Amino acid sequence: MHSYLLRTRMAIVLRIGINQENKPAAKAWAHQAEAADYRELVFRLALAITGERESAEDITQEVLIKLHNSKVGKIENPIAWARRVTVRHALHHLKRKRPISEIPETLPVQENTQEAVLVQSVLRSLDPEQRAILGMAIGQGLSYSEIAEALSIPEGTVGSRLNAAKKEFQKRWEQ
Amino acid sequence: MNDPLESLGSFYKSLDSIPTPPLFVPKRKGYWALILAPLTAAFLAYGVIVWSAGASSTEPAIRISFPMDGFALRQLQDPNLPQHPAGHASRERIQTWVG
Question: What is the mean pLDDT of each run of 10 residues along chain A (175 residues)?
Fold first, then answer.
């Protein structure tokens, strides 16, 4: 995917026919191309962790601003970097204490079934870290190494934390 | 009721139906400078051209200005017209200026 991003960037830079290193216009184009590619990744991950559309949109905006202000070209693995920043922002968002009135009543899903309501209420009762790990593993299907990198924890810890999160979810579901 | 983890999986799958929001394009610093700089440069260039054209002109530096203009013309047509109370150039000088 990284090579795809580079190709997109270069294609846009070549299309406008100017040197990327020297011209600010080319850099602006490159930034927009990068933002367009990372937007999907960041939004989906934020949505899986928070389960709320509005929160995911806020997090996406914050992360894209950070991406815009940073020199992504100098980062070794920009995808992992984007994931790490998104997870950090999502956890910060979930840890903020919000009054009950601020919690959105409507679900992001179109099928507003009883089961979906129950899933979301159980997710809200979990710790932010547990929600994050469930969202990444089950929601996004990320590998243990990718989750470990995003959460900055050893790879061996991911399995145990995921199992604990699953057990906690099942326990609260049955209550 | 379904298995909890199965329900969780289908909940996450249902999130895929939500469209990604439109691209956020932040304003870059100096954005207005990019527009204003060429406009300012064009204005200054126009000013320099006009100034240099004026400097090289052979027209007299003193010009008859309104309202003296109308009075001077009337004075040329009628030599008996009394001089303007404010006092100004002689008829000969006015004739020189007008042409």
Answer: 46 39 51 70 92 88 81 74 92 75 50 78 91 93 92 92 94 89
User: In Å, how far is B45's CA from the nearest CA of chain A?
Assistant: 25
B7 vs A24, A28, A115: nearest CB: A115
The tokens describing A120, both together, are 């979301």
Tokens representing A167? 């057990």
CA distance A76 to chain B (A): 24
Widest Cα–Cα separation across chain A: 63
**Are A118 and A80 contacting, i.e. CB atoms less than 8 angstroms apart?**
no
User: Contact at 8 Å (CB) between B62 and B97?
Assistant: yes
Residues in CB range of A2: below 8 A, 6 or more apart: A77, A78, A79
Angle at A135 between CA A131 and CA A139, to 5 degrees: 150
Extract the tokens encoding B37: 């700089």
Q: What is the pLDDT of residue A22?
A: 43
Residue B97: name the closest of A158, A132, B47, B89 by CA: B89
Interval B24-57: pLDDT, tens: 555 566 677 888 889 999 999 999 888 877 766 6
